[in-house]
Write a structure and sequence with these properties.
The protein has 207 residues and is an alpha+beta fold. The chain has helices spanning 70-79, 101-118, 134-149, 168-181, and strands at 13-14, 21-23, 27-29, 34-36, 42-43, 54-58, 64-69, 83-88, 95-99, 123-128, 153-159, 186-195, 198-205. It is rod-shaped, with a radius of gyration of 26 Å.
């Protein structure tokens, strides 16, 4: 946003509970000429979108430059060809770093992904009949891929009722199709086996 006279006004933000803000609009990094797009998630305010008058500034080498005015901090970031990124909004004074915002964001996203991998996995269950049609089976395979991507195991349960119990081979064929479709993405933890009138198998993400 730009006010009359060429002065840049900060974009509107919702006050955060953590050290980041929720962007209500796209924002522009004036030093690097990059657009930081709103993605309905949290992001770190940069450059002209930082509203604090004084900041504790860390340079690109990790050196503490002390408490600087917002204008001086922005000048130093511009001279380095980098962005000024607010990393701790609730510190007194707030802390900002001079970094390449794209690289900074990538590292944060990578750390978040590693954190998700570190969480204990859940076992998701998908149930269906042995006479499930091809389309519905494909839908379940796609759902399985989503579960596996999130690091979860998936339990498949085929329930046989009535005369269908005489067609056990059909159940094994369905399980075989699923396992083949998941090759290289998931591996079998529990081979297909009957438990009463149910054929069950469990797959898990490939390590």
């Amino acid at each position: 946003m730009r006010k009359k006279g060429g002065e840049h006004s900060p974009l509107p933000f919702i006050t955060p509970v953590s050290n980041t803000y929720i962007a209500l609009e796209n924002c522009f990094c004036y030093n690097t000429g990059r657009i930081v797009k709103k993605n309905n998630g949290l992001y770190y305010p940069t450059n002209q979108n930082i509203r604090d008058n004084e900041l504790r500034v860390i340079d690109a080498e990790g050196q503490n430059l002390g408490i600087l005015s917002r204008e001086v901090a922005l000048t130093k970031a511009a001279e380095a060809g980098l962005d000024l990124v607010l990393i701790s909004a609730h510190a007194k004074p707030p802390v900002a770093r001079i970094v390449d915002y794209s690289k900074f964001k990538y590292e944060k996203e990578k750390a978040a992904a590693q954190s998700r991998k570190g969480r204990s996995s859940e076992v998701k269950e998908l149930r269906f009949r042995p006479n499930i049609d091809d389309h519905d089976l494909e839908v379940r395979i796609k759902r399985t891929l989503e579960f596996i991507k999130d690091g979860n195991k998936v339990k498949f349960t085929i329930r046989f009722s009535g005369r269908m119990i005489t067609r056990k081979q059909l159940g094994y064929e369905k399980m075989g199709r699923i396992i083949k479709a998941l090759e290289g993405i998931a591996e079998v933890e529990k081979q297909p086996a009957f438990e009463g009138d149910m054929l069950i198998t469990i797959v898990k993400p490939v390590k």
